[in-house]
Design goal:
By secondary structure, the chain is of the alpha+beta class. It has nine helices and 19 strands. Helix content is 26%, strand content 33%. The strands form four sheets. The protein has a six-stranded mixed beta sheet, with helices on both faces. Helix 2 runs parallel beside helix 4. The chain is elongated, with a radius of gyration of 25 Å. It binds adenosine-5'-triphosphate. Adenosine-5'-triphosphate binds next to strand 2 and helix 1. GO terms for molecular function: ATP binding. It holds the Pfam family ABC_tran.
């Protein structure tokens, strides 16, 4: 394991920003720390960097406990959301900054900076000042500056937050490619689920100072282990009473049932559908064109749910009665989440 946090606690006043945080990260992985505002993501990053001290617990990097090692000696690169470039320094000098502090010789600095300028695709702009760069370019320079001293670990705090939507998209894929190519273990903080899904090899979900779940984006999306991960991730609707939908097991003491649009099949009454015997009938209360599909909101006996229909399927209209079939749902009980599959599907597979 390359980075390990063991029983980390950190309190600010009477607020527990880290509550017994434990996780391990393998070398070369790109990890997303994802959670709502105030859930303790930045605190974790700052403790790893050495900018904040845990009240208890151990931070281990490359097999060594680093709690007592100052930030400057941890060999970590840091990229902040607001670029934090030195305004009165050129691109070259910004990137060279860490190397000058390390007292590297001029020849080495020149070579290293030109290698990095090439890597970030800004060759020819070495003499520009930050004010003469776009947001995306500034963030690339910040990335190169953090990489210049060959850090063993790269920490990025909301690295895309200050960048406008279109460039952000480009920068995300660029960063992912770059980190894969360099193989440097990296942890980035985000509160944006799409960003975490798209960029991270693994996601650590934080909530109220605790770790809710750790896994690949697909694992967390498909198998949320806690009530929080089930409702935080993806576009969800909560049902009033899932037992009104046919062929599901009933969980004693369940609090909520959560569905995602891809768990639902909405069909017209006369449309052929294999599980027709197990559908519920609902009424369309809203339709919205979403570019690559139509979002359809249906009021059923068990609650109001959102599903999607493809653009090539026959249209459904406001006020129309439709069939609704739920493939699966997440049921929460306390902090736990369970996945319930529609029994009509399993029964059918037994028959086959
Ligand atoms: N130096 C500090 N002094 C006092 N309270 C702090 C300090 N740093 C963080 N906190 C508090 O600790 C909690 C967790 O903060 P943290 O910045 O780690 O959350 P976050 O998940 O990164 O949130 P955001 O997405 O808003 O940045 C917050 O309630 C915050 O106000």
């Amino acid at each position: 394991m390359y980075v390990e946090l063991k029983n980390i606690n950190k309190t600010f006043g009477n607020y527990k920003a880290s509550d017994n945080v434990n996780f391990t990260i393998e070398q070369g992985k790109l990890i997303g720390l994802l959670g709502p505002s105030g859930s303790g993501k930045t605190t974790i990053l700052r403790m790893i960097a050495g900018l904040e001290t845990p009240d208890s617990g151990e931070i281990i990097i490359d097999g060594k406990v680093v709690n007592d090692i100052p930030a400057s000696k941890r060999g970590i690169g840091f990229v902040f959301q607001n670029y934090a470039l030195f305004r009165y320094m050129t691109v070259f000098d910004n990137i060279a900054f860490g190397l000058k502090i390390q007292k590297k010789d001029k020849k080495y600095i020149k070579e290293r900076v030109s290698e990095l300028v090439e890597l970030i695709g800004l060759k020819g702009l070495e003499k520009r000042y930050p004010s003469q760069l776009s947001g995306g370019q500034k963030q690339r320079v910040a990335f190169a500056r953090a990489l210049a001293p060959n850090p063993t670990l790269l920490l990025l705090d909301e690295p895309f937050a200050a960048i406008d939507a279109k460039v952000r998209q480009e920068l995300r894929s660029w960063l992912k490619e770059m980190i894969e190519k360099l193989g440097v273990t990296s942890i980035f903080v985000t509160h944006d689920q799409d960003e975490a899904i798209e960029v991270a090899d693994e996601i650590i979900i934080t909530n109220k100072g605790r770790i809710e779940q750790i896994g690949t984006p697909i694992e967390i999306y498909q198998k949320p282990q806690t009530a929080f991960s089930a409702s935080f991730f993806g576009q969800t609707t909560v049902l009033d009473d899932y037992t009104k939908f046919k062929t599901f097991d009933v969980v004693d003491g369940a609090d909520k049932a959560i569905v995602r649009p891809e768990f639902i099949k909405i069909t017209k009454l006369n449309e052929p559908f294999r599980q027709k015997a197990s559908v519920s009938v609902g009424e369309v209360v809203k339709t919205a064109f979403r570019g690559n599909n139509i979002e359809v909101t249906v009021k059923c006996d068990g609650g109001v749910i959102n599903g999607v229909r493809g653009l090539e399927e026959p249209a459904v209209y406001h006020g129309e009665k439709v069939n609704v079939f739920l493939y699966r749902l997440f049921v929460t009980k306390g902090d736990n989440a369970f996945i319930l599959e529609n029994k009509s599907l399993t029964e059918e597979s037994v028959v086959i």
